[in-house]
TrEMBL record:
Residues 300-343 are annotated as: Disordered. Residues 318-343 have a biased composition (Basic and acidic residues). Residues 121-333 form the WLM domain. InterPro entries: Ubiquitin-like_domsf, WLM_dom. GO terms for molecular function: proteasome binding. It comes from Aspergillus glaucus CBS 516.65. Gene3D superfamilies: Phosphatidylinositol 3-kinase Catalytic Subunit, Chain A, domain 1. Pfam families: WLM. This is WLM domain-containing protein.
Length: 343
């Protein structure tokens, strides 16, 4: 039996005995792609749909519709090496934050020297310290180098730099958000701030991964997330600060419009207007609890976080995989309905 498995945009072909079971396929994937069986989820179309550990001991030839033109198997899961690397990065970020907190506490205990006039800044007041200290594109998505350029543009934006220096925002990590992991049939999240500025995530890409969103819309979302460095709740203080940051960014960058990253960038003019009308979700308030660790962790290991008025709450990796699966199933349903209408 010859089967093609799709994982992170790459196809893998396997030859299995005719009496192979779903458990045999999972074991084979674990040994070749180094994804633990307990972290595997198989989205099988058109039926039987999503399968996850523990896999039923059913023969593949009895459950797979191999002759269907829509037959496809998609593997959802993160390799062990990638999980280890991301966990190591999270631990490194945590150590840096602890060292920075210790240094700040030590500095606060010392007498504050009188400031000089005339616009001369001391080393501790350098604007270079108020920035995003690390940029992280998602390497498993297409063209991560373009995402890195987008993140660099946001970091170096004159308006963003001015606002961060004025409010003394120092963010260890700015990264992109995987649209599929933050999309459901009810909502699409545009940004996220963890632990009041430990990590900021932004939805850079279009839902279909075929381009990038309007720069000015993303920059507005970033202003929103920067305000969460001070206020977690969406209260009056938060919205006042968000409006102030947006005005400061616009004033400091009055010579620059929303230029495209490249000729292939997608412009969605309704994005920000849709947010104001409730069509999109900017975020679910400031997330708190745990460290920024991707892959391999259960939902309860990340921390409960803050909940929104609608009852939504931040999810861990297992929860994100569920969101990814639901988003994939929703797209398949829409494609099927569109096919029926065309026929």
């Amino acid at each position: 039996m010859e089967l093609t498995i799709h994982h992170h945009g790459t196809s893998h072909t396997y030859h299995l005995p005719p009496d192979a079971t779903l458990q045999d396929l999972s074991t084979t994937l674990s040994s070749t792609l180094h994804i633990p069986i307990e972290n595997q989820k198989l989205l099988i179309a058109p039926k039987p749909g999503m399968q996850k550990h523990p896999f039923p001991p059913a023969r593949l030839d009895t459950i797979l519709q191999l002759d269907s033109p829509k037959f496809k198997i998609t593997l959802l899961g993160t390799p062990t090496k990638e999980i280890d690397n991301l966990n190591a990065e999270g631990e490194n970020t945590k150590r840096k934050l602890e060292a920075r907190a210790t240094a700040r506490a030590s500095a606060a205990a010392k007498p504050t020297p009188a400031r000089r006039t005339g616009g001369i800044s001391t080393l501790g007041e350098s604007k270079e310290s108020y920035t995003f200290h690390r940029l992280l594109p998602l390497s498993y998505l297409p063209n991560p180098d373009r995402s890195l350029q987008f993140l660099m543009r946001l970091r170096d934006d004159p308006g963003i730099r001015t606002a961060m220096a004025k409010h003394r925002f120092s963010v260890p990590l700015l990264t992109e958000m995987n649209p599929a992991e933050h999309t459901t049939s009810e909502s699409r999240t545009l940004g996220l701030n963890r632990n009041q500025g430990e990590v900021i995530e932004l939805r850079l890409r279009t839902d279909a991964y075929d381009g990038y969103r309007d720069y000015r819309t993303i920059r507005k979302t970033l202003c929103h997330e920067l305000a969460h460095c001070v206020f977690s709740e969406h209260d009056r203080n938060f919205w006042d600060l968000t409006g102030l940051i947006e005005k400061e960014v616009e004033r400091a960058d009055w010579k620059h419009g929303g230029q495209s990253v490249s000729g292939e960038e997608f412009y969605n003019p309704g994005d920000w207007e849709g947010v104001q009308e409730g069509g999109l979700v900017v975020d679910e308030k400031g997330w708190s609890g745990g460290s920024f660790v991707l892959g391999g962790l259960r939902e309860d290991a990340v921390g409960s976080g803050s909940t929104s008025s609608g009852g939504a709450r931040p999810v861990g990796v297992e929860g994100r995989r569920e969101v990814l699966a639901r988003a994939a199933e929703e797209r398949m349903r829409r494609e099927k309905e569109q096919g029926k209408r065309e026929n």
